[in-house]
Write a structure and sequence with these properties.
The complex is a heterodimer of chains A (291) and B (274).
Chain A: H1 2-10, H2 21-37, H3 42-56, H4 67-83, E1 97-102, H5 109-121, E2 127-132, H6 139-149, E3 153-154, H7 163-177, E4 181-186, H8 194-207, E5 211-217, H9 224-235, E6 239-243, H10 253-261, E7 265-269, E8 277-279, H11 282-289
Parallel strand pairs in A: 1-4, 1-5, 2-3, 2-4, 5-6, 6-7
Antiparallel strand pairs in A: 7-8
Chain B: H1 5-20, H2 26-39, H3 46-61, E1 75-80, H4 87-100, E2 105-110, H5 117-128, E3 132-133, H6 141-155, E4 159-164, H7 172-188, E5 195-201, H8 207-219, E6 223-227, H9 238-245, E7 249-253, E8 261-263, H10 266-273
Parallel strand pairs in B: 1-4, 1-5, 2-3, 2-4, 5-6, 6-7
Antiparallel strand pairs in B: 7-8
Helix pairs in contact in B: 1-2, 1-3, 3-10, 4-5, 6-7, 8-9
Classes of the chains: A alpha/beta (291), B alpha/beta (274).
Bound molecules: guanosine-5'-triphosphate (2 copies) and magnesium ion (2 copies).
Chain lengths: 291, 274
């Protein structure tokens, strides 16, 4: 493990005063290796190493900690600070409040839409699920089935002509029937697909969402920077949901997404069942990335 | 123009960076570029370096450029992989491809877990014009495969493609279920599944290596399909997988349409990567 490597590298530092540059360089090399193996973006790693080096250089080794532990703590704390930060609750202003779920193909948007509805219902809200993916085979049926599993009402998108029409109609019905939160599932798409990114902008204009959640796979590699940037520049992301966190992917892509969008990671998906949605804890992911 | 000492090192570092950012991984990227370092003493041209890098990667990938030979009847393909990578869509594309070759294709809806998975595959069956053997959601996938093997023999199907539920390789019980489905197929039809096709998403990072290792250990993977190469991800993860596991890369997915499937070509892949 990384902390064990730091302990070995820095075991002779104690008693010599502050950590020296040579000690730090070797330990930083290990950090760089660990972060790249954990799928943190190449450039993000560079910037992170620079920050950690500054924090570690000249720092007095505390009497109560071995230098290896000291260094581990610096790296862990810095990573936690970068991953976390601002309030990661859901912004639910609006009558009804609208949450849009967007992202690449297969990332887990449809499942997460149902999970969020379940989460909100258990908090006493009255959510309405809106399937706005008319492209993927049986996508509307998939969300309908999930909605019925958790006994949340679902807009009937069958027979509607296009996603904008669905969204307009769903907003109208929600106001009529008094649902207080709309959860809109959109089709997976590539950030480089101009036409589909335009469609997303159109949906945003119709829905005026208080949350646009970028649903991303926690096993995403270096490309996370590109996709997060692409979606953020097109429609502005308000939060990130990392799915399939129940696997063994180290999850370094999360750091790329957090730093690229500047937005908080709000939830993690921890399984296929609809109660498998948890609030994100930065220090937990930091530990996993550094493992 | 000549690339001298300092700038040559810079250039090699840039090449290494381009490999890492394509998900080749730090270990493989460093090893590949290091082997170039020793070979390239004295060569002085940046573009020449890139060419040598391409050749080095091509040498790795040409070993796994082995198209799938459908040489038995019925030829059974079991499609597996983690959640959301494109298994069901890839099956639709394969069904269309093999039907166009004049073969009779049959699909088996082996994902009995996920909502609307059966209906999604039935949709692809309609598009490709081939029958889908199915039971009910919540049922035993082994029972579906059993039915499919019997139906294939009875109807004289040329190709049978088994869809399975997405499953994380870390879920021991789901890996056991996959092994069971594999056993059912081989009991009903000796030699089946003739191809165990692992589907990997090109945007996946280093975790793809774990996926390949564990699925291979569980059922023996005989081919890989790399999907979503139409995005900006380069899919470099197949390089460490090729080096370590030597599993043939059969297909690449380049879109969501029924024709968006190509046979893997090592030279094309390398040209797009570096
Ligand atoms: N293990 C696990 N599987 C998940 C999680 N979230 C989603 N999945 C699975 O991932 C697969 C894809 O999920 P979907 O909800 O269909 O993904 P999507 O983003 O809507 O896909 P498209 O609409 O095609 O873009 C399904 O098999 C889900 O069950 C998670 O947190 N953990
Ligand atoms: N852009 C692009 N999208 C693809 C490709 N292959 C599949 N997809 C999309 O990826 C999403 C998931 O595809 P599925 O076929 O449902 O994936 P799966 O592996 O069967 O998913 P589960 O059964 O839930 O595990 C769908 O939106 C597909 O259209 C590809 O090559 N390129
Ligand atoms: Mg979906
Ligand atoms: Mg599927």
């Amino acid at each position: 493990s990384l902390s064990e490597k730091f302990r070995k590298i820095l075991k002779d530092v104690r008693g010599l005063g502050a950590i020296s540059e040579a000690n730090v360089q070797e330990a930083l090399k290990e950090v760089r290796l660990a972060l790249l193996e954990a799928d943190v973006n190449f450039t993000v790693v560079k910037d992170f190493i620079a920050i950690v080096k500054e924090k570690a250089m000249g720092k007095e080794v505390l009497e109560s900690l071995s230098p290896g532990q000291q260094f581990t703590k610096i790296v862990h704390d810095e990573l936690t600070a970068l991953l976390g930060g601002e309030n990661s609750g859901l912004e639910l202003s609006g009558k009804p409040a609208v949450i849009m779920l967007v992202g690449l193909q297969g990332s887990g948007k449809t499942t997460t839409t149902a999970k969020l509805a379940y989460h909100l219902k258990s908090k006493g809200r009255n959510p309405y699920i809106v399937p706005a993916d008319l492209f993927r085979l049986a996508a509307v049926l998939q969300l309908k089935k999930l909605a019925s599993e958790i006994k949340v009402d679902c807009f009937d998108s069958e027979g509607m002509n296009n996603p904008p029409e669905i969204c307009r109609e769903a907003v109208r019905i929600a106001a009529l029937k008094g649902y207080d939160i709309l959860l809109v599932d959109t089709a997976g798409r590539l950030h480089i697909d101009g036409t589909l990114m335009e469609e997303l902008k159109t949906l945003k204009e119709i829905l005026k969402p208080s949350e646009i959640l970028f649903v991303a796979d926690s096993m995403t590699g270096q490309d996370a920077v590109n996709t997060a940037r692409g979606f953020n520049e097109a429609i502005g992301v308000t939060g990130v949901v990392l799915t399939k966190f129940d696997g063994d992917a180290r999850g370094g892509a999360a750091l790329s997404m957090r730093l690229t969008t500047g937005r908080p990671i709000k939830f993690i998906g921890t399984g296929e069942k609809l109660d498998c949605l948890e609030v994100f804890h930065p220090s937990r992911l930091a530990g996993r990335i550094l493992d | 123009s000549a690339v001298t000492g300092a700038s040559r090192e810079e250039f090699l570092e840039k090449l290494e960076e381009s490999l890492i950012t394509s998900d080749v991984g730090i270990k493989a990227s460093t090893e590949i570029v290091d082997s170039l370092r020793t070979k390239l003493v004295g060569w002085g041209n940046g573009e020449k370096f890139r060419e040598y890098l391409r050749d080095a990667i091509y040498d790795i990938l040409k070993e796994v450029e082995k198209p799938l030979e459908v040489d038995k009847s019925p030829f059974v393909i079991m499609v597996l992989g983690v959640n959301g990578v494109g298994k069901t869509t890839t099956i639709g594309k394969l069904a269309s491809r093999y039907s166009a070759e004049g073969r009779s294709v049959m699909l088996a809806a082996g994902d009995t877990f996920r909502a609307a998975a059966i209906e999604q595959l039935e949709g692809w069956g309609k598009r490709a014009g081939c029958p889908v053997v199915r039971q009910e959601q919540g049922g035993d996938p082994g029972a579906v495969v059993f039915d499919a093997m019997k139906a294939a023999r009875a109807r004289g199907a040329d190709v049978v493609i088994l869809d399975t539920a997405g499953r994380l390789h870390t879920k021991v019980n789901l890996i056991e279920e996959l092994k069971k489905v594999n056993r059912v197929a081989s009991r009903e039809l000796p030699g089946a599944p003739h191809e165990k096709l692992l589907v990997l998403d090109a945007s996946t990072g280093q975790n793809a290596i774990n996926q390949a290792r564990i699925f291979n250990e569980a059922v023996g993977v005989t081919g890989i399909a790399l999907t979503k190469l139409d995005g900006t991800a380069r899919g470099g993860i197949i390089i460490p997988i090729a080096r370590e596991l030597k599993i043939p890369i059969r297909f690449v997915g380049v879109g969501e349409g029924i024709d968006d499937l190509r046979e893997f070509n090592a030279r094309d892949f390398v040209e797009a990567l570096v």
